[in-house]
Design brief:
The complex is a heterodimer.
Chain A lengths: L6 H5 L3 E5 L6 E5 L16 E2 L11 E2 L6 H12 L11 H6 L2 E36 L2 E31 L4 H8 L8 E2 L9 E3 L5 H23 L4 E30 L2 E8 L5 E3 L5 H29 L4 H19 L1 H20 L3
Parallel strand pairs in A: 4-9, 5-8
Antiparallel strand pairs in A: 1-2, 1-3, 2-8, 4-7, 5-6, 5-9, 9-10, 10-11
Helix pairs in contact in A: 6-7, 6-8
Chain B lengths: L15 E4 L8 E4 L22 E3 L4 E3 L6 E2 L13 E2 L4 H4 L8 E6 L5 E5 L15 E5 L9 E2 L6 H13 L18 E32 L2 E27 L6 H5 L10 E2 L9 E2 L6 H23 L4 E30 L2 E8 L5 E3 L5 H25 L4 H33 L1
Parallel strand pairs in B: 10-15, 11-14
Antiparallel strand pairs in B: 1-2, 3-4, 4-5, 6-15, 7-8, 7-9, 10-13, 11-12, 11-15, 15-16, 16-17
Helix pairs in contact in B: 5-6
The chains are: A alpha+beta, B alpha+beta.
Chain lengths: 362, 430
């Protein structure tokens, strides 16, 4: 009896598993990559330790659609502009910390025998009419509308489905909405080189837990196929009684780049969809810079106020300076009242971004 | 996806048939299309004696005139729930065509009317002009097949008697019309009608005038002046229009047909060619689109009237409106009419009888000598009285009394004469 191959052997490259006790995510990294912080929550303290891992390698990988340099250019563009940028929100630093990353997706293969029923909608053109009366004359106008005729359909289905994508992470939907989704048609068979220097997120959603999602995905796929089979344009009230056979689960990896910056001692992640280039990240404001701006404005206001008052006093002897003094006092008051605005704005912005970030799971 | 149906033993629900599928491994079943009589036509023959059988209006079933065999018709009364059709761009292509019964199409050489009759009918007289100069041709199949009809329920004999009575009525018509022989042949014919429904959302805008009374003090006295003050107003009117009938052919005058209305559309029955056995039927020669134009014109005029009713004043100017028609639907039906023509003094006159209610609409000649005599009789008291008054004025008091009385009598006579003349003229123009 031969020993079962290890994950490293199965994946074709030496792998180390890192577990984060803070966000409970596990990552795989090639031996060449060292990790001291969790790429999902940026907390330090990830530890190389064994974790439950499917030994078989991913079946498919969506390759990166861009070189790392292109990702750096996108980051540089993203980091531009904005008030009170944190010191670390610099293109060079973000690029230096850039790391290729893969999200997992389950792929389901199965055979289905099912009985289905639905209402299929067929588009057709109908005419409606509008009559206008003005100046003693009628003018008729015909409006062509597209309407849907719904008809009941039922039948049987015996099909094999391959590579139906289903979530492999609890936060799959949140991540897909952040990264803007992937074109799964560009997938390729897995090769060890694909994950070279990359970090791979380990599924936290077991196939058993993902089965209801798989059922829904299969049902959606079957509904679309039955719509095509019926030559319909729409489908509604879909129902299917199905029996599945030859069920297999494999994994697919979807690419991303991840980097981070620190603002007010807090690290913040920035993600790039490795296929489409869509950048996702929150631009926090530097509270320190905003406070400094407020202090400078307040200081200037005090100086202007004092000068203005001085001019008013001198104005008792030189009346021409009174007007200038009054203007400076008014300007100083306006500046003084505006001084807290930068600090308050930065505080509010950071607070709303933190609240939003807290709502989205890692 | 809990299995409740077994793939292997599943069978489609009743009434579903397999339809072509575009994806291998998927079977598609759809409701079976309603059975329709296809292009192949059928002839109604008695299963006992093989004679031609026909629909009997009294018993409302098929009866063999030779052996008395009776057969019920399987159609059902659907009334106002009869299916409507939308104005789809492909309406004409999708609609069923043909009569679904062996019929011959007949064209009248005198008036060019086209109508159809049963295959077995040997002699035919044109129901529109009474001529027997007709030529047979193959029945047209490029027409939309009627979806519903109202079967004849008034018997021919009853119809004949009521028309005779109707002809004899009225003092201003020739007394010869009372003679039994004026009307002999009655043709029972199903006439084509389009029925339209729509909901109208109308919006109007107009200057509406309100009468105002003002008092002025001018040149030492008070004067009252009435002026109309105009202001822009607008409003919305929602108007449902149901079962608007438009005659689907051009041979009969719409005015004459409207006098036959109403038909009780609650008695609409699904079309069954058995109802046409032994009867004539006219196919439409006004297709759906021009018929809808007629229906639409009537609908928008109704909407215009409704908008005017919505305006709280009789003074309106710069009136403008839009009428959005929604849920426009149509039906094509056959309605029963008895038609006859009779000749009098070298002229042909039409008489129509509603085959469902027995209402009569027709033309009757006017005996103008009688009319003039009646007018003379109405005017005579006034004229004679006036002459008498003029003659007696020189005699003193009596004449001065007779003259105003004669004048009043003349005015009354004039009004009566005008009324008689208008009535006679209308009867003559029908």
């Amino acid at each position: 009896m031969s020993a079962e191959p290890s994950a490293s052997e199965a994946w074709g490259t030496p792998l180390q598993i890192y577990y984060c006790p803070h966000c409970h995510s596990a990552h795989l990294a090639p031996a060449s990559v060292t990790m001291d912080t969790c790429p999902a929550c940026l907390e330090a303290g990830v530890s190389p330790e064994p974790a439950h891992l499917r030994r078989e390698p991913p079946e498919l990988v969506i390759p990166f659609g861009m070189e790392q340099q292109q990702a750096q250019d996108l980051l540089a563009e993203w980091a531009k502009g904005g008030w009170f940028r944190p010191d670390e929100m610099r293109a060079e630093l973000l690029s230096m910390r850039l790391r290729p990353y893969y999200f997992p997706v389950w792929l389901v293969d199965c055979d289905i025998e099912a009985v289905w029923q639905a209402e299929m909608g067929y588009d057709y053109q109908a005419a409606s009419f509008r009559e206008r009366y003005q100046g003693g004359r009628w003018v008729s106008e015909q409006i062509t509308e597209t309407r849907v005729r719904w008809e009941p359909r039922t039948g049987r289905l015996k099909r094999s489905y391959e590579n139906v994508a289903v979530r492999a992470m609890e936060a799959h939907d949140a991540w897909m909405s952040r990264l803007g989704g992937y074109d799964f048609r560009r997938r390729k068979p897995y090769a060890p080189q694909a994950i070279d220097r990359s970090v791979v997120r380990v599924p936290d959603y077991a196939p058993e837990a993902a089965w209801p999602d798989a059922e829904q995905a299969l049902s959606r796929t079957a509904a679309l196929e039955c719509k095509s089979a019926s030559q319909a344009d729409h489908v509604r009230n879909w129902a299917m009684d199905a029996r599945t056979y030859a069920l297999t689960w494999t994994q697919m990896l979807t690419p991303a780049y991840v980097t981070w910056y620190r603002a007010e001692e807090q690290p913040h992640l920035v993600w790039i969809n490795g296929q489409s280039g869509h950048v996702y990240g929150h631009k926090y404001a530097s509270q320190r810079k905003a406070k400094l701006a407020s202090l400078v404005m307040g200081g200037l206001a005090a100086v202007f106020f004092l000068i203005g008052m001085l001019l008013v006093l001198i104005g008792t002897a030189l009346p021409a300076l009174v007007a200038l003094g009054v203007l400076m006092v008014i300007g100083a008051l306006v500046l003084g009242l505006s001084a807290p605005i930068p600090a308050i704005w930065a505080w509010f912005r950071n607070r709303s971004l933190s609240t939003r970030e807290e709502r989205t799971p890692a | 996806m809990t299995p409740q149906h077994n793939y292997a033993t599943w069978s489609p629900p009743p009434g579903f048939v397999v339809v072509p599928s575009q994806v291998p491994g998927i079977e598609v079943y759809a409701p079976a299309p309603e059975e329709t009589a296809g292009p192949e036509a059928k002839t109604f023959r008695c299963p006992q004696c093989a004679g031609l059988i026909s629909y009997d209006a009294g018993d409302q079933e098929l009866i063999c005139p030779y052996c008395g065999y009776r057969q019920q018709i399987g159609a059902r009364v659907v009334g106002l729930s009869a299916d409507h059709f939308e104005f789809t761009l492909g309406t004409l292509d999708e609609s069923e065509r043909g009569w679904g019964i062996a019929r011959r199409s007949i064209q009248c050489a005198s008036c060019n009317a086209v109508f159809s009759s049963s295959e077995g009918e040997l002699s035919t007289t044109c129901p529109f002009c009474g001529s027997n100069r007709v030529s047979t041709q193959a029945a047209l199949h490029d027409t939309i097949r009627p979806g519903y009809l109202i079967p004849f329920s008034v018997e021919r004999e009853l119809c004949r008697a009521s028309v005779r009575t109707w002809l004899g009525k009225g003092w201003m018509h020739p007394p010869e019309l009372r003679q039994a022989g004026a009307v002999t042949e009655f043709a029972g014919i199903y006439l084509p009608f389009w029925i339209f429904d729509a909901h109208i959302d109308a919006h109007w805008r107009a200057e509406v005038g309100y009468r105002e009374t003002r008092r002025h003090y001018r040149d030492g006295k008070w004067e009252t002046e009435t002026v109309i003050r105009w202001r822009w107003e607008s409003g919305d009117v929602r108007l449902p229009i149901h079962d608007l009938l438009v005659y689907g052919a051009s041979k009969l005058s719409a005015e004459l047909l409207e006098r036959l209305y109403p038909y009780d559309l609650a008695q609409l029955t699904t079309y069954d060619s058995a109802y046409l056995a032994g009867w004539q039927a006219q196919a439409y020669d006004v297709p759906l689109k021009p018929a809808w134009e007629v229906g639409k014109r009537r609908m928008r005029e109704r909407a215009k009237d409704a908008c005017y009713d919505d305006i709280p004043s009789a003074h309106v100017r710069n009136f403008a409106m839009t009428a959005d028609l929604n849920q426009e639907r149509w039906r094509y039906v056959l309605l029963p009419v008895y038609m006859t023509t009779y000749a009098f003094a070298g002229e042909t006159y039409h008489v129509l009888v509603n085959g469902q209610t027995g209402a009569i609409a027709g033309q009757k000649p006017v005996a103008w000598q009688r009319v003039w005599l009646a007018i003379a009789a109405a005017l005579a008291p006034g004229i004679l009285g006036g002459l008498l008054g003029l003659l007696t004025v020189p005699l003193g008091g009596v004449g001065t009394v007779i003259l105003p009385v004669a004048f009043v009598l003349f005015l009354v006579g004039l009004i009566v004469s005008i009324y008689i003349f208008v009535q006679a003229r209308e009867a003559d123009e029908r």
